[in-house]
Write a sequence for this structure.
């Protein structure tokens, strides 16, 4: 158990709909990262938050948005869903302190299926 | 400069073999090189990691070899087992704007035959 909690684990919805994925980072971790993994694909970085502020953006579509709340949990909102948005969405957290980088802890993922 | 190139894309070995997965990077500012193991339907989990001040690190059957001058690092799995069948991702990270920036390789799907 990495200590990173993601809900829901599975989600099935229709095209055009909107969903929200939730992530609770490990206790004490200030940074949250979101990744998308399509079938048999690598980890596509979407966005990173640090202590409530957006810090880095990757290949995130305009239909997607995210935020990190004061209690450090994060939500990824996916709207106007398309079939191609079907994927595993991972949240990861890291303490992000000190001069040297350290371990990134991943959650179990939320599997989104768009029909 | 921000890419991490990983090869091969897939690998099949017999039980007891020594699969080797290679990664190469360009940004010399990277200071942490982890390898993640991912089983189907699960999140990636840290397997082993190395910093650039050492050339090799072993943890059980897993070894990272690091060549700073060539900007390459590799994962060796000794006495591989069917349970090692998974996807392996290399990564490189650096402190950037006060937080960690991670760059992942594209992954290697390993299958160990019984």
């Amino acid at each position: 158990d990495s200590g990173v909690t993601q809900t829901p684990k599975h989600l099935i919805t229709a095209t055009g709909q909107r969903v929200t994925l939730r992530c609770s980072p490990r206790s004490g971790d200030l940074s949250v990262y979101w990744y998308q993994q399509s079938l048999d694909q690598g980890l596509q970085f979407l966005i990173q938050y640090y202590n409530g502020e957006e810090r880095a953006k990757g290949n995130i579509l305009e239909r997607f948005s995210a935020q990190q709340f004061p209690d450090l949990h994060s939500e990824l909102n996916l709207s106007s869903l398309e079939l191609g948005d079907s994927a595993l969405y991972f949240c990861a957290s890291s303490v992000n302190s000190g001069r040297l980088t350290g371990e990134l802890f991943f959650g179990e993922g939320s599997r989104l299926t768009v029909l | 400069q921000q890419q991490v190139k990983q090869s091969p894309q897939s690998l099949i070995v017999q039980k007891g073999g020594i699969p080797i997965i290679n990664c190469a990077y360009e940004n010399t500012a990277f200071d942490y090189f982890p390898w993640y193991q991912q089983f189907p339907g699960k999140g990636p989990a840290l397997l082993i990691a190395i910093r650039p001040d050492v050339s090799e690190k072993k943890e059980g059957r897993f070894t990272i070899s690091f060549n700073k001058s060539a900007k390459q690092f590799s994962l060796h799995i000794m006495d591989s087992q069917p349970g090692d069948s998974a996807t392996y991702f290399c990564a490189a990270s650096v402190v950037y704007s006060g937080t960690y920036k991670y760059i992942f390789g594209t992954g290697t799907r390993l299958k160990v035959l019984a």
